[in-house]
Design goal:
This protein is mainly α. The longest helix is centred in the middle third of the chain and has 45 residues. The N and C termini lie far apart (about 65 Å).
Length: about 60
């Protein structure tokens, strides 16, 4: 192995690690935004749920 290829391997490993960490950071940020949107929709469902029979508040979901 030449001296040049020995110095390239650690550089490639560092670049690969940076790429993996950037991808994970982007995915986590996207998941946080999705979680916030679902939370807002869930809270809106409780506020805007329809009234049931007998002056009782009904559930907006089926389970």
């Amino acid at each position: 192995m030449s001296r040049r290829s020995i110095t390239i391997v650690p550089l490639l490993l560092v670049l690969l690690l940076a790429l993996i960490l950037f991808g994970a950071g982007f995915a986590l940020k996207a998941l946080w935004w999705i979680a916030v949107i679902v939370l807002v929709l869930w809270l809106l469902g409780f506020v805007a749920r329809s009234t049931g029979s007998g002056d009782r508040r009904g559930r907006w979901y089926r389970w």
